[in-house]
Amino acid sequence: MYDVTLRNFYCRLHTHAVQEPFVIATHRQLSVLHPIHKLLVPHYKDTMFINAFARQVLVNSDGLLEQTHFQSKYAMELSSYIYKEWNFLEQALPANLIKRGVAIEDARSTHGLKLLIEDYPFAVDGLEIWSTIKTWVTNYCSLYYKDDSAIQNDVELQSWWKEVREKGHADKKNETWWPKLQNFNELVETCTTIIWISSALHAAVNFGQYPYGGFIPNRPTISRRHMPEVGSVEYKELESKPEKAYLKIINSMLQTLLGVSLIEILSRHASDEVYLGQRASIEWTSDKAAVELFEYFGKEVSEVESRIIERNKDVNLKNRSGPVNVPYTLLLPSSSEGLTGRGIPNSISI
Question: Lipoxygenase domain: from which residue to which, for each copy (predicted)?
């Protein structure tokens, strides 16, 4: 119960909420002709809309989250504590895996990391997606920034980064971990992290909500009673009729209806979804070199998908399907419309 409810607040904060300052600063400080604007804007599609809608019905006072999660009126207070620990650099997948103790740096290993749990689907698939995004960002940025001085002297770029740190994430403006954005590597890592958060990270934590939590007894979000004391009537009922007693403890029928409806909606792909490796318009840039690089990126994303599918067929990788034989598909880049349990949209749009 604690795990599933904390996930909802933690993951919303680390995707929806933290991205807003980047979206706003990009539109305020970068011209639509700026190469970084063209790189990042496709990953902002509908994010501000869905966040505004969530503030009206989801995370508002007495909203759906407060009604269906045991944190109740303390839900947003919990989010504020989570934000106090937020670190932009730790949202990069390699840094996140190291922080969580499931990987160590190893220059000899693929992606520069050695996984301490080799059969860890999210990490294995995620690192392939991360590296593919980073290669695309590196190649794209190299078209426009030939040396570090070009980055340092880009007034729009520096104004963008200043607004992100000092206005967008003002509570964090004095943190020493912020990249200075003074060299090519910092620019690439920053843009890669922003795209990762908007696409693969959000996909991994969002589109599995209904497949994994749609059966509320499996992942309840509320406890309506304390654990019964030994010898009490409630304890005897728990011993003799555990299922009946359990249903009296977890979400009520109304809370279950609200909760299931909510995650069913949040786990769906829209009909106009644009996925990683795709662009909504072929005219997103007039730079033919950038278009060619993006087409190559799209092919690389498709190849990653093929490798994930093959790994899911490997019977020796026990964690990819588990004892119930449900394969890990959350980081398969493509998807159709609806409730699919797969697909990486370009942006946080639901």
Answer: 1-350
